[in-house]
Amino acid sequence: MKGPLFYSKILLFGEYGIIKDSKGLSIPYNFYNGALKVASELTNEAKASNDALKRFADYLEQVDAELVTFDIESLKQDIANGMYFDSSIPQGYGVGSSGALVAAIYDKYAHDKITVLENLTREKLLQLKAIFSEMESFFHGKSSGLDPLNSYLSLPILINSKDNIEATGIPSQKVDGKGAVFLLDSGVVGETAPMVSIFMENMKQEGFRNMLKDQFIKHTDACVEDFLKGDIKSLFNNTKQLSKVVLNHFKPMIPKQFHELWKRGLETNDYYLKLCGSGGGGYILGFTEDINKAKKALEGYKLEVVYNF
């Protein structure tokens, strides 16, 4: 048995902000993917995945039946037969490793599932998001449900607010464009839960809340609008402001060895860095108007281009 492929995702804009109702834009990233497989002989990695699936199946049995039910019997039988999630998606890198797994399990075992082929009304999208949020909470403690949604639909998702999300189109890429969005490998694994709890702790301070509303969310919303409109000049202005705000107010989420690099981008305008997911490690997102300049400036670092302007 080999199930369909589910892709990783990149939240281009909206990390942390969407917790407080900013806009967000998430795109599928098919460089990484995962699928459910069954094998009689399991490698250590597959065995670890199989064990995690056992615990996940027990958790899914407890999920509110009003929300979603699963064919738990088949799921447990397949796990007993050696099912695991075979994935190239790096864990703790902010590209949605648990999201792809959640999408794969829902796709195969949910009763009355909402499919991509239906007319995806806002109600259906929100229902899917609620189901995925509940499912993914097993891995993260608290999940928005957006990663699995993106992986399941394989479409860009525009988040207007918590209760208003839609599948969207994004401007098509210019294959030979000099401008680019890229991933920078920090070489450190990030963990979501501790980063989110630092953020929630900061939210208790009025100054931080005001900064979030007046600066962070303002620039995030503008970036989303610029990107969707294809207004590149304005996009880079707003991305620079956003990068500055993150450096000043989200320092704990940026691995220490990248503080200088972050600052240098803002000073030279060769590139601007921002968080990819919750931060703390994993990938850092970069935006540049000239990918060759950025590569030169970031020599010695691993860069992966994900989108060309």
What structural keywords apply?
309 residues; alpha+beta; four-stranded antiparallel beta sheet; 10 helices; 45% helix; 19% strand; globular
Draw up the topology in text:
Layout lengths: L5 E8 L10 E15 L5 H19 L9 H9 L2 E5 L9 H13 L12 H19 L5 H8 L3 E5 L2 E4 L12 E6 L6 H11 L3 H24 L2 H18 L9 H10 L3 E4 L7 E6 L2 H7 L5 E6 L1
Antiparallel strand pairs: 1-2, 2-3, 2-4, 4-5, 6-8, 6-9, 7-8
Written description of the protein model:
This protein has 309 residues and is an alpha+beta fold. 45% of the residues lie in helices and 19% in strands. The protein contains 10 helices and 9 strands. Strands 1, 2, 3, 4 and 5 form a 5-stranded antiparallel β-sheet that branches. A 4-stranded antiparallel β-sheet has the order 7-8-6-9. The radius of gyration is 19 Å and the shape is globular. The protein starts with 5 loop residues before the first strand and ends with a strand.
Which segments are poorly predicted (pLDDT under 50) over 5 or more consecutive residues? Answer: none
The end-to-end distance, rounded to whole angstroms, is: 40 Å
Averaged pLDDT: 93
Q: Roughly how much helix do the residues carry, as a percent range?
A: 40-55%
Question: Roughly what fraction of the amino acids lie in strands?
Answer: 15-25%
Determine Rg (CA atoms, Å).
Answer: 19 Å
Count of extended strands: 9
Number of helices: 10
Order of helices and strands: EEHHEHHHEEEHHHHEEHE
